[in-house]
Design brief:
By secondary structure, this protein is of the alpha+beta class. The chain has helices at residues 7-16, 34-43, 94-110, 174-178, 184-201, 207-217, and strands spanning 3-4, 25-28, 51-54, 75-82, 115-117, 121-124, 127-138, 145-155, 224-229, 232-241, 247-251, 256-259, 265-268. The relative contact order is 0.15.
Length: 273
Amino acid sequence: MAEIQTAYGREVAAALGEHPWAQHLTVLDTVDSTNTRLKQLAAAGAPEGTAVLADCQLQGRGRRGRDFTSPKGAGIYLSVLLRPEAPPRQLMCLTALTAVAAGRAVAECAGVQPGIKWVNDLVLGSRKICGILTELSVSGTRGLTDYAVVGVGINCSQRREDFPPPLRQMAGSIASETGRPVCRSALAAALVRQLAELRRVLLTGERARWLEEYRQNCVTLGKAVQLVRGAEIRAATALDIDENAALLVRRDDGSLETVNAGEVSVRGYYGYL
């Protein structure tokens, strides 16, 4: 059952029209975290396609426990519930495919194709405009995924000076990087539609086409990077993305290594990229 608290939410619902997931849309004025709220709904039995969208997050979260700044009226803060009947190893590419879905939505509504910094950030120029956080719950008895919560945050209208000082060198918004506004309600609806399409291809052969789109837009490939594992930092060159969205790199000694997002983070030598 849809729950719409704001005029923004009514605009999103109108933009979604008769889309099947529109009937399970919750739009809140303020929430601690859309991922946290959706996990509560998932545990209570909410169906696949349930989405939580908020105008503001008080405790927005990114990967590795980082905060995601979520000011009121300035971005898309959306989480969608998926229930794929699959072991977690088959969903290792879910974050990467979400980046493709989010990039398509931005391209549709803002007229510009963002790049993807491996594994989960969208960038315009050298600035991050979008972060993604996927969280899985696994059944202990069957070893299958009970649910996946896919969270996407897109900066829409912030000026560079609106970001906290530590983020000003790396963060941007669609408006700050293109010089043009974007309609948040249209973008939120486009994102829901693209995530529904992602779910359709997730466990099919079609996801190979999505991964190829990821490769084409991945700004990390071909770059010198630093692999950060705890206190250890190693130099490498990013070469390719495999079928599970892991990153193939060549270390400075010439050896090849495949790294997963859960094992390391990747930093560029020059600025954010």
